[in-house]
Amino acid sequence: MSSKRYLIIIAFVIALSMGGFYFYSASGEPEQASIPTSGSQTSTISDEEMLEKFSKALNIIQEQYVEEVDEQELLEGAIEGMLRSLDDPYSVYMDEETAQQFMESLGSHFEGIGAEVSMTDGKVTIVAPFRESPAEKAGLQPNDQIIEIDGETIEGLSLYEAVLQIRGEKGTTVRLTIERPGTTEPIEIPVVRDEIPIETVKVDVLEHDGLKVGLLDITSFSEDTADRFAEGLKELEAQGIDGLLIDVRGNPGGYLNSVEEIGKLIIPDEKPIVQIENREGEKVRYISTLKERKPYPIIGLTDRSSASASEILAAALIEGGGYDVVGETTFGKGTVQQTIQLGDGSELKLSLFKWLTSAGNDINKKGVVPTVEVLQPDYFYTIPLSGEETLKYDMMNDQIKSAQMMLEGLGYNPGRTDGYFGEQTVEAVKAFQQKQQLNATGEITGETASLLQQQIVEKVRERENDVQLQTALDLLSEQAKGE
Question: What CATH number does residue 355 fall under?
Fold first, then answer.
């Protein structure tokens, strides 16, 4: 065996068996983990036996495989194979180029579609589109599984190889073919890439029922989110708010320390914000430093796209603060990943811990259930209309079902929303076309589809149609007035 190959194997085994890991801090610098990792071995195979077996397999492939192979590709393939065997969509290997792009995406902005993805059952899966991102505007939803990018299958690609193909220059379009639970056919969704700003906290004041309600909308948890939240809270309290809404809908998560710092500002009575558990069952609790409750009610907002750090905050509001959370059950990501450098610019993003709620509950693959469950109107969940196929009488498919829900949401009665294009749907389409000064054919062509899509997006963005927000405002008003 060559000395180079031997060194690769040694580095490979050390990277797998070392007991103390180094992680990236928020600044990108490596730092020692503050939570102890276990040094125990669950396998009966010794390091020497692992090294011997790996070395033997590498030798055989290098010397006897029918074609010449690249040593670096073999090594990376071995690492990726081990990670796949973990059956964990959040543990991934990143080569030097991918690792660099990953770190850039944690900065102030990047160019792409604005969605968090994971590898689930071997398929690149949308965890959550960022709020107001190209991905959300195009109609991508949690649990959409991407099967093609620009017409090319992505079978066999790693998660980050797929991500590199999805990302690109602002203004360019990527066509994603997805499989969506509940639909019978693949859906092709064009997404126009844009600059994705990491403006993570939006501050607003809403007038409702004679009250002044503060709104802190957290779109993700980056390195400066806690500071932005503290500034926003101070600004709202200076205006004399009567209550506070914290909106983490569409928030895919981010830094653990960010949500911890936010929890210290709003969770009262020095209660736990979150608990972190290693594989040996050892737990570290992160405790709030706030001694007294705020003098106003607080309510959280969640949806099925709220993941990771968003779920920590939602659970802390319910279990630690005794506050209400309005909306939908969250995504269900209950593990903590850390980035581990492998010494050559490549990295592992590895799940090292579970996080548990304030009361010690594991929400992984379950989600956090809100205290007040509220779904949005059906048209909030429609799939985008491609406009490529004319939809007309006596046809039946998922595109028609989506169009029917859009028509109904816009006040045109299609008679049914099961995807069958019946006579009443024809009349509803004609009425819509007449209103838009289009040729009233009763068939949905590209222009009709585009206008339907545009108007439903505008309706979704109007706050008065946001049933979850309005429910939260009404509930907060009751609590503020002591009703």
Answer: 3.90.226.10
Find the mean pLDDT for residues 298-307. Answer: 95
Residues 383 and 373 in one domain: no
pLDDT for 35-64, tens place per residue?
A: 434 444 445 677 788 888 888 988 899 899
d(CA 334, CA 106): 21
Query: Quick one: 281 and 324 in the same domain?
Result: yes
Lowest mean pLDDT among 73-77, 88-92, 115-119, 190-194: 115-119
Spatial distance between the Cα atoms of 159 and 118, rounded to a whole number of angstroms: 7
Pairing mode of beta strands 243-247, 187-192: unpaired
Q: Please, are residues 248 and 306 in contact by the beta-carbon 8 Å criterion?
A: yes
Average pLDDT over residues 210-221: 94
Q: In whole angstroms, give the CA distance from residue 470 to residue 8.
A: 59
Are 357 and 311 found together in one domain?
yes
Tokens of 442: 């009763």
Catalytic site positions = 308, 333, 337
Instruction: Confirm whether 475 is domain-assigned.
Output: no
**Distance between CA atoms of 407 and 124, rounded to whole angstroms?**
32
Do the Cβ atoms of 367 and 307 come closer than 8 Å? Answer: no
Domain that holds residue 409: 378-463
